[in-house]
């Protein structure tokens, strides 16, 4: 009986608090120095996905571009979202409202490359954020 | 005590599963980024993603700069055609793409849709006598668009039992007016799947 009460209570708590977190993995890249920093704020995502390559270049009109390869470490599909934000030399985000989270499906043990192009010539630093998302599937 | 606790926990679960209010609850300010798919239709986040993808693709494409020999191209925009079954404001999408391209400072735009207003203002400057004639803007000096951007939205749907799959495709092209050549083209696919509940 006690077990039943505990299960019911835990289920109710889970429903009200939500079962997912918006913390995820972020990759910060300075396009002037080439220095990159990977921060992993979600243990489950850390165990399921890894950043395996970061490259950067410039598109023909001089805007910065970043390519980041994400690799799955598990056999199941992962339903993720990612957003690449751009920052000026003072560290302030440029046109934050115009950058949205995009859906990303990472198949089991697969790797995908996400690409972002700066939205302004003033952009010198990019920041990729990847987070988990609940799915209907 | 145990019985009342179990009753309360059960009631909480029931309320969570069935919903315990009728009509709309309190309204909160939403974040477009946090919106998850609600329907199989095109939703705001799909439009945001499409606009962002098209803008990035256009900014990264070398063909545009090659066509203008390195100069910032002057574009016009033709409202995208809607060939889908959905009613959707296509001007809204083309306006968003234009706004982002202008803000990138890599493209210049003319706007054919407001040419009538331009003529009205120039006429007033020339005829009303309120404007200094030396400063009045005369017709015939506007710059010309070198290329125009246009596109279309198409859709397709499939169903299998209780599963409904809807597929949308935004496709866009940039055409050089002088040569008639398509300088850039790209597309963005949106796929939505839903399973109809049994009850």
Structure description:
The complex is a heterodimer of chains A (137) and B (199). By secondary structure, chain A is of the alpha+beta class. Chain A contains two helices and eight strands, in the order αββαββββββ. Chain A has a five-stranded antiparallel β-sheet. The longest helix of chain A is centred in the N-terminal third of the chain and has 16 residues, at 2-17. Chain B is an alpha/beta fold and 199 residues long. In chain B, helix 2 packs across helix 4 (90-103). Chain B starts with a helix and ends with a strand. The relative contact order of chain B is 0.16.
Tell me the number of structural domains of chain A.
Answer: 1
Question: Which structural class matches the secondary elements of chain B?
Answer: alpha/beta
Largest β sheet strand count, sense and barrel closure of chain A: 5 strands, antiparallel
> How are the strands ordered across the major sheet of chain A?
2-1-8-5-6
Q: Can you tell me the overall shape of chain B?
A: elongated
Write the layout of secondary structure elements.
The complex is a heterodimer of chains A (137) and B (199).
Chain A lengths: L1 H16 L7 E6 L5 E5 L2 H6 E10 L5 E9 L5 E10 L14 E5 L4 E7 L7 E8 L5
Antiparallel strand pairs in A: 1-2, 1-8, 3-4, 4-7, 5-6, 5-8
Chain B lengths: L1 H17 L25 H17 L1 H6 L6 E4 L3 E2 L7 H14 L4 E2 L5 H13 L19 E14 L2 E14 L5 E14 L4
Parallel strand pairs in B: 1-3, 1-4, 2-4
Antiparallel strand pairs in B: 4-5, 5-6
Give a quick precis of the structure.
Chain A is of the alpha+beta class and 137 residues long. In chain A, 16% of the residues lie in helices and 44% in strands.
């Amino acid at each position: 009986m006690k077990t039943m009460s505990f299960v019911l209570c835990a289920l109710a708590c889970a429903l009200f608090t939500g079962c997912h977190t918006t913390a995820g993995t972020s990759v910060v890249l300075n396009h002037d120095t080439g220095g990159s920093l990977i921060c992993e704020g979600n243990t489950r995502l850390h165990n399921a996905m890894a950043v395996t390559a970061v490259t950067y270049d410039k598109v023909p009109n001089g805007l910065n571009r970043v390519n980041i390869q994400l690799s799955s470490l598990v056999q199941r599909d992962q339903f993720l979202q990612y957003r690449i934000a751009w920052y000026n030399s003072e560290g302030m985000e440029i046109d934050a409202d115009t950058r949205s989270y995009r859906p990303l499906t990472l198949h089991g043990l697969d790797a995908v490359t996400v690409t972002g192009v700066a939205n302004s010539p003033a952009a010198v630093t990019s920041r990729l954020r990847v987070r988990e998302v609940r799915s209907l599937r | 005590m145990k019985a009342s606790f179990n009753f309360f926990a059960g009631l909480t679960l029931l309320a969570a599963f069935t919903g315990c209010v009728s009509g709309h609850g309190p309204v909160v300010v939403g974040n477009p980024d946090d919106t998850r798919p609600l329907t199989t239709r095109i939703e705001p986040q799909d439009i945001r993603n499409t606009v962002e993808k098209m803008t990035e693709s256009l900014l990264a494409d070398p063909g545009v700069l090659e066509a203008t020999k390195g100069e910032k191209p002057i574009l016009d925009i033709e409202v995208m055609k809607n060939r889908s079954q959905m009613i959707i404001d296509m001007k809204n999408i083309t306006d968003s793409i234009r706004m982002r391209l202008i803000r990138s400072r890599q493209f210049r735009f003319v706007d054919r849709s407001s040419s009538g207003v331009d003529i009205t203002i120039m006429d007033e400057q020339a005829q009303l006598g309120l404007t200094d004639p030396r400063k009045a803007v005369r017709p015939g000096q506007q710059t010309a668009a070198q290329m125009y951007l246009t596109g279309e939205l198409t859709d397709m749907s499939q169903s299998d039992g209780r599963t409904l799959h809807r597929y949308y495709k935004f496709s866009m092209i940039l055409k050089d007016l002088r040569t008639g050549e398509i300088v850039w083209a790209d597309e963005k696919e949106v796929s939505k799947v839903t399973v109809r509940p049994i009850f």
